[in-house]
Amino acid sequence: MAAVMPAPAQSRLLMSGNEAVSRAVWESGVRVAAAYPGTPATEMLEEISTYPDLYAEWSVNEKVSLEVAFGAAMAGSRAFCAMKHVGLNVASDALMTMTLTGVAGGLVIAVADDVGLSSSQNEQDSRYWGRFAHLPVLEPSDSQEAHDFTLAAFELSERFQTPVILRLTTRICHVKALVTVGERSMHPVAGFTKDVGRWVMVPGAAGRRLPLMFERESRLRSEAEVSPFNVLETGADRRVGFVTSGPAYMHVRERFPDAPVLKLGFSYPVPFELVRKFADQCDQLVVVEEVEPLIETEIKAQGIAALGKDILPRSGELSPAVLGPAIARLLGETVAEAPVATPMQVFPRPPTMCVACPHLGVYYTLAQLRNVTVSGDIGCYTLGFGQPWNALDACISMGASMGMAHGLDKGRADSEKDKKIVAVIGDSTFMHMGMQGLLNIVYNRGNVTVLLLDNRAVGMTGGQNNPGNGHGIHGEDAPRVDFANLVRALGVRDERVHVVDPYELPTLFKTLRQETKIAEPSVIITNRPCVLTDDFKARSPFMVDSDKCTGCGNCVDIGCPAIHVTRREKVIKNSGKEVELNFVRIESSACTGCGLCLQPCAPDAIVPVGELSMPIHVVKKN
Amino acid sequence: MAQRGGVVSSHLRFGAKVLSPQITPGTADLLLGFEAAEGMRWRHMLRADGLALINSGRLVPPVVDLGLYDYPEDPVAAVRAAGTRVFSFDASAIASELGDARLGNSVMLGAISDYLPFSAQVLEQCILKRFATKKPALIELNRQAFAAGRAAAAQAAQAA
Q1: B41 in contact with chain A, both atoms CB, cutoff 8 A
Q2: For tag attachment on chain A, is the N or C end more exposed, with fewer CB atoms within 10 Å?
Q3: For the whole model, what pTM was predicted?
Q4: pLDDT tens-digit profile of A453-512?
């Protein structure tokens, strides 16, 4: 997106936490901001890229984005980096050593924990990276704090010459609330100072930096003791005092307005003296934090008595509704029954692939292959595990499909000699962390058929630009990677590289069957864009000629959300077998004419609504 | 998951001071169901005398078409039978008549606009402002959608 004029200082704006952080990044005079998209962190870089006078980029993965931001901070600029929780796992190699070098310009790492797993493969507490790397952690509780803490994080970062972790959760990132914004202030950039003892982390130099890191941590703890972000709020009802951080503070405040609360906005290093002082004012302490018992474990280790996860849920989001009964039980009070009945029973509505999604044909085809294990990856195409395809067997982390596939190949049981191993990965995930897995297969003479689903976008997070679509973060032209040449360069033989139109089912099926039979690595690249991006061009829609529909239900197996069953009918076939017929209609207002469903339709019951805008590019299966 | 056909729910709290952004189940004043079965899914968020405004239009997910689950026969009637006050009409049909199913959102916001502690015009202006950077035709369409939703809700209220 192009830069727009930011709202003037002192404006009160309705902002999500992500937007508030972004505004503060701009106000802080940040010169370099980098990220890889990931829910719930994505909007930070999207938003930052709309501000003037700073450099923003989509990096190819979180580790690279952190290295870019760190480089800028070495050069003396203020730098910012945003990622989701699992992104910091990827970036952690860089993180664990930049804590030794420290930074020159301020470096703030915003990490967004997907508490409650709205769109992630796991639930994690990123504050542990703060403890692990001996870095300060700030935890805002709402949008205004997200803004203010970001400003403070840069100041803290420069004063202590340390990267600072700004820990957000989905509830902070996406909730919108009023924020009073401020002025932009610029900071002089000192430039890079050559200092091999500091910037070149070989064992000797790194060893000399270790005591400095611990000394810094000790000073940071003293800072946390007096930080204005650690607030001791007195309360009349002293039966329970709450130590809390992040959005959990709001839930505590809402549910227990009269209780004493110690709000830790600067939560690591934990200010032990402040906690002790607070403990003296309450009958007992309960630590309320999302997700892990980090503060709880820290203060218990100091000999301060407290409860926490022993009475509160071990995972997921907290809320006033969760806290109320737990504390009532602790105090031996009767737990008030929920005022309203339990939720009504309704069918689940799992996420699904879009109408005309180019992945539909891929999974329809994979579902037809026999004796195959499909190793999957992170992206929209992970949904291929679900109905009706059931055609993805494993998924753990970004880029893991090929490493897992190679292991499935090498570790196969004697009884599974003929099993075919397929890896499925999207373009952005391939560039993020997948290339190494493919190189490893080639180098170690593995036997995996790789489906590289190139839809020219980071689809799951909203279609961000990447090196695969030839556009930069502002939509400008950028060098576009050539996947066929790339995989050839990694050593996949030319004959084993195919570029296939995923809307042509017969070609897809033939290529996949052929390549899985050949005992060497092959790569099949699909070449249709994500339907939610500008690259996708809709065609004229189709409809079902109900006179011709025989109810075979083949089209339903495509899994397109525009195809609906209108009538089910049980019939006895000549063989005596009972089969269910599914007569269908197409929601033509949703159909974009990809033509996938025409191909398995034997009676040609799927016809254009009007004149075809373009010739259909599909080939009928005989 | 909003773009992947999954369940999406949003909580809106406003007032002089808002602490937790989450609404405790059984305490919401209003429930705005943008799809019939989704109105049913979230009924329990309402307080006993709360009001549900539910689009009777349906979005049937693939799991239903695949025969794995049944779509409720009449979600709106089910919510009513559970003792909740419901105003319902087909916002999807109104949107389609106006030319775009996505206008259903503005139709439903129009529907709720007379049940908020501020004038309907305030909400209308906020919505139209969101379209200010888009094509002028979109502003007009959304204005129509909002008005149609308002009228439909008033009619549904009379019928209820």
Answers
A1: yes
A2: C
A3: 0.95
A4: 999 988 889 889 999 999 999 999 999 999 999 999 999 999 999 999 999 999 999 999
The DSSP letter of residue A464 is B
Those of residues 358-387 in A touching chain B at CB distance below 8 A are: 380, 383, 387
Under CATH, which architecture does the A12-188+205-226 domain have?
Answer: 3-Layer(aba) Sandwich (3.40)
The CATH architecture that domain A230-330 belongs to is 3-Layer(aba) Sandwich (3.40)
DSSP of B78-131: HHHHTT-EEEEE-HHHHHHHHT-GGGHHHHHHHHHGGGSSS-HHHHHHHHHHHT
Distance of alpha carbon A212 from alpha carbon B11, whole angstroms: 46
At position B130, the amino acid (one-letter code) is: R
Looking at the complex, does the CB of residue A288 fall below 8 Å from at least one CB of chain B?
A: no
Q: Which long-range contacts (CB under 8 A, 24 or more apart) does A605-609 make?
A: A605/A544, A605/A545, A605/A546, A605/A548, A605/A549, A605/A550, A606/A542, A606/A543, A606/A544, A606/A545, A606/A555, A607/A542, A607/A543, A607/A544, A607/A545, A608/A540, A608/A541, A608/A542, A608/A543, A609/A540, A609/A541, A609/A542, A609/A543
A390 touches chain B (CB under 8 A): no
Minimal C-alpha gap between B65 and chain A (Å)? 5
> Which of the four pLDDT bands, split at 50, 70 and 90, describes residue A339?
low
Structural domain spans, chain A:
12-188+205-226, 230-330, 358-526, 542-608
Taking the CA of residue A594 and the nearest CA in chain B, the distance in Å comes to: 18
In CATH, B19-159 is 3.30.565.10: no
**Distance of alpha carbon A457 from alpha carbon A527, whole angstroms:** 12
pLDDT in tens, A371-415: 999 999 999 999 999 999 999 999 999 999 999 999 999 999 999
Res. A3: pLDDT tops 70: no
